[in-house]
Every structure is written in structure tokens, then in C-alpha cells.
Write a structure and sequence with these properties.
Elements: H1 9-18, H2 33-45, E1 49-52, E2 57-60, H3 67-76, H4 79-89, E3 101-103
Antiparallel strand pairs: 1-2, 2-3
Length: 105
């Protein structure tokens, strides 16, 4: 689902270091259009519950149950993706986890 071999790690690392107001980098095209469609459909079918913070009101999932979302989290936690993100950020990643959020108006 995710192929970090296609990323320009050096350029992303430079973007990370120069990010304002905090270190960050945007990785465009991380998933294909077909995978993105599956993820959007998965989010639409994933149970979400009201969640309110100080700044945002949203709907949040628990541990993802929809296969497309579980596949994304698994791909983000792969050794290849973790190594690429570590090379970009200068920080080693041990694992990836995730939830789905739907922000309300």
C-alpha cells in the first residue's frame, strides 16, 4: 500500500528540518487513488463516537476494524516505512498505531 522507495528522503529530511512553526514534511501520493478510495470507504463504515477536546469537536474511532484501515496502519508500521520516517525525522520509530477521526463543522 505504501512504497517509501519512491520518496525523496533527502528532500523530505530537508523539508522536515526547515518546517515552520515546527518540524514537519508533507509526503504527497503516499497511497494510490484506488487505495485512497478504499480508505475513504473504510472510514465511512468504521464506527466513530463523539470526542471533544479543548479546540476541536470530532468523531473518533476505536481500534480500526475495517480491513483497509488496518492495512494502512500495518503499512505505516512496516520496517521500510519506519526506516524512511526515521531517516527523515532523525528519530527512530518503534511502531505505528492509529485511529480514524471525522472533524465536525
Amino acid at each position: 500500500m505504501i512504497d517509501p522507495a519512491t520518496w525523496d528522503v533527502a528532500a523530505l529530511a530537508a523539508a522536515w528540518r526547515g518546517g515552520e512553526p515546527f518540524a514537519h514534511a508533507a509526503v504527497d501520493g503516499v497511497v494510490s487513488e484506488a487505495a485512497l478510495a478504499r480508505l475513504r470507504d473504510g472510514i465511512a463504515h468504521e464506527p466513530h463516537w463523539p470526542n471533544r477536546g479543548e479546540l476541536f469537536e470530532m468523531m473518533a474511532s476505536g481500534e480500526p476494524t475495517v480491513p483497509a484501515l488496518r492495512e494502512l496502519i500495518s503499512a505505516l508500521g512496516s520496517a521500510e516505512v519506519r526506516a524512511a520516517v526515521g531517516a527523515i525525522s532523525g528519530r527512530a520509530l518503534v511502531r505505528a498505531d492509529g485511529n480514524s477521526y471525522v472533524y465536525l463543522a
